């Protein structure tokens, strides 16, 4: 029974897209357009130079395209199913999360796992196509590939907790759309989605090192393209693991405090 409940929770959001073929077509087209535009942009920026900020043209293009593909890991339309924390708080239905057979924190984790596995299928498909077409470069070695996979796993774990903290804020702010948009922009900027952090000023890179955002994407992709050497991989992986532990403890505390704010009438 527990396995059945877990399976049902994990497939909530993916089913929303799988049962809507036009939405999947739109996602495929948007992803293809994003890859083409990013590929064209970075090749154009490197048209008159060889190496900038320690990145060659091929490294920069590979980084940028992989960042686009990685964005699909958690970029699913939860609003269509009306199952976001923000919506439940607005409609007063968050109480049902506490009446289900699964605890709310476990339901949230299982649903996020299903979303990431579904997004992983999109990202891997796009990666294989881009690799076959020569849009991105392969890892420099098998060791680099293994370190990248481990770092990416830790990065997605950190991202899960970052997104969880944003959702947990709804228990105190009820409607925090503006705050969510600001924090999502900060997440994308400081994690290197818009551009590699190596292009930013030194003070910006130093500041971001004290935040968990770059551990979500910048570190894995920098390891993949070789901007971070394998000799520094152990330190970077340990930093990512430390963020996982700290955020796990922090979100566990927030879950306990959030439960005290839920009443029988809803949010």
From TrEMBL:
PANTHER family recorded: SLR1174 PROTEIN, SLR1174 PROTEIN-RELATED
One Pfam family hit: ABC2_membrane_6
Origin species: Streptomyces violaceochromogenes
Name of this protein: ABC-2 family transporter protein
Keywords: Membrane, Transmembrane, Transmembrane helix
TM region(s), chain numbering: 117-136, 142-166, 178-200, 233-255
Keyword Membrane: yes
């Amino acid at each position: 029974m527990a396995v059945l409940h877990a399976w049902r929770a994990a497939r909530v959001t993916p089913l929303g897209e799988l049962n809507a073929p036009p939405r999947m077509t739109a996602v495929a087209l948007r992803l293809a357009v994003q890859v083409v535009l990013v590929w064209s942009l970075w090749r154009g920026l490197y048209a008159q130079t060889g190496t900038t900020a320690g990145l060659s043209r091929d490294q920069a293009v590979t980084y940028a395209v992989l960042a686009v593909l990685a964005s699909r890991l958690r970029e699913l339309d939860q609003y269509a199913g009306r199952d976001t924390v923000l919506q439940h708080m607005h409609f007063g239905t968050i109480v049902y999360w506490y009446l289900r057979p699964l605890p709310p924190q476990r339901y949230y984790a299982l649903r996020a796992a299903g979303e990431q596995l579904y997004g992983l299928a999109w990202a891997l498909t796009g990666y294989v196509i881009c690799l076959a077409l020569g849009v991105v470069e392969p890892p420099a070695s098998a060791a680099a590939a293994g370190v990248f996979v481990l770092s990416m796993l830790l990065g997605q774990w950190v991202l899960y907790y970052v997104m969880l903290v944003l959702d947990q804020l709804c228990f105190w702010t009820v409607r925090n759309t503006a705050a969510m948009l600001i924090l999502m922009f900060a997440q994308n900027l400081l994690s290197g989605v818009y551009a590699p952090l190596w292009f930013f000023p030194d003070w910006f890179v130093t500041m971001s090192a004290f935040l968990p955002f770059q551990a979500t994407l910048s570190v894995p992709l920098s390891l993949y393209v070789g901007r971070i050497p394998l000799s520094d991989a152990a330190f970077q992986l340990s930093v990512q693991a430390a963020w996982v532990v700290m955020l796990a403890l922090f979100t566990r505390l927030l879950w306990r405090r959030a439960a005290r704010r839920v009443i029988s009438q809803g949010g």
